[in-house]
Amino acid sequence: MKRRQFIGAMMAAGAAPLIKAAEDGRIARIGLITDTHVETTLESCSRVRAALELFKAKGAEMVVNCGDIADRHYPQGYRFYRQTVNNVFPDPASRPKEIFVYAWHDLINHDKVLGGKWDPVAAYANVRKQLEAPNPPFCDFVWKGLPFVVATQNVGTKGFPSWEEYEKTVERVCAANPGKPVFVCDHLPPAGTTFHSREWGSERCRRMLNRFPQVVSLSGHVHGTLACERQIWQGEFTAVNIGCLQTWGGFAAGSTPPHQAKPNFGAIVMDVFADRLVFHRHDVRDGSEIAPPWIVPLPFNPSTAPYAPARAAARVKRLPAFNANAKVEVTPANADFKVQITDATTPQAFMYRIQCERMNARGEWEAFSQDDVFSEFWKAQADRSGTISHVLASGFFTPRGKYRVSVRPLDFFYRAGAAIASKEIQIPEHSSPRELWKIEPPANNLRFTEYNKTVEPTIGGMFAPSTGQGTLWLPENAFANLEPGKRHQLVLDLYSRMPDGDWCGWRVRLCSRRSGRVVASSPLTASGTPGTLRYVFTFTTPADGSFPASCNITFNNHFPGASLRMDNIALLRG
Questions:
Q1: Which of 315, 332, 360 is the last residue of a domain?
Q2: Distances in Å between the alpha carbon of 422 and those of 321, 329, 405, 502?
């Protein structure tokens, strides 16, 4: 059906015309960026400038920044941002309309800048003044026939609209604009929509927006990459996370958290038509498109929405498979073991699932650990090295055991292709760290609490804290006599269960009992029900002997029904 026939049919059926469209069909072109995190120099605005130059070349008529404009409350940084805009668009008459979302990073240290008082209302007023921003922290408007709602991250706090007011605003705007997409610009994504929004999104926002199918949520916060196909989602409504224009992180299951500071250069050019939205994902360095555009049909229909997770996954006909020359190599690296993977799959893998396997009594290989690491999918083709390196701590292995490392490529929906494996690894006696103490099984010997109230294990020894917050109390003074300046490893064999198996697990930390300070690395458990897996905390005790004598292991998640069981805990030196 042609566009005019489509609109005519809609009107004949009694629906209001969607939007008064331009003759060429495109109603508006909008540039989208987020998490720019500028600092106190003009140079820190270089990626913003590159994005604005891209938007200028593409003819964008509006630019939206979805929050964390500066890394801290930096008046000079906001002025440099404004200078950058004016340099790229020297003629005010041709300057695109600007919209800013006011978010948490723009509050940090504002009390010191503004005279010692914590006052978010005054802080955002200063952001707006220094930035010469046209919009207040909370507003709604119609531009070129397109309705927008702009919300601050401080909704629900003193001096800002309540969540009820936010919801009523969205309701009013949707009711006033039937049949049209309503763009809701916020910093936090609705929880359980786009990538990493399970942990970093807003449950309250998700529950609210579920009522409004015409909403198109635009957000930032999670520092994703636009190369990820999970940055768009459709369910009860449509959500697009713009990624970031600074560094992207990404969390993955395993003992070794992935490097968080991966440079990012992504921006979106969104074209609005009467019958569709088109999201072009660009690298601002050269203007190239990172991947094919996302095309969202209008009006929204949940039964055919192309970016509903199951529907999006079904369109991917091939799982990633290693090329014929791919291999996994494991070599000693100081006291640990370095895993090197040939990053060569077709199609490109999203992640690699690295599993340690040991030979059991039946002569079979069985997996007992899982580390998920990102491939180089997020890099421009010219920047890819072709290999992925990962380090496994020696605490995963015991002397004279037979081991190997297997690797499976994962697609964007965590579906695994066929594995390849390393050669067998022999662990020599002298390479293993010395065991200082061991508790097995911990559930019978240690106290588990939820906000200082004892939690009794269920059948099977599982602990299921109702709030998702749990603490395992290790023996008093168990860390009192650690040798200063030496590396230690805390080995935890953990059985975990996460009913919602998509992107989520238990965050595990070793903390000082007295101060609560995290003193060792922070593993994330595998999602779903993967069985008993080994996690290893590695840490070096301070040379001054200040490591806390008594520590706890804390567990944290955001999901009801999650449970866990500790099968073994050991402290090693070396």
A1: 315
A2: 16, 6, 5, 28
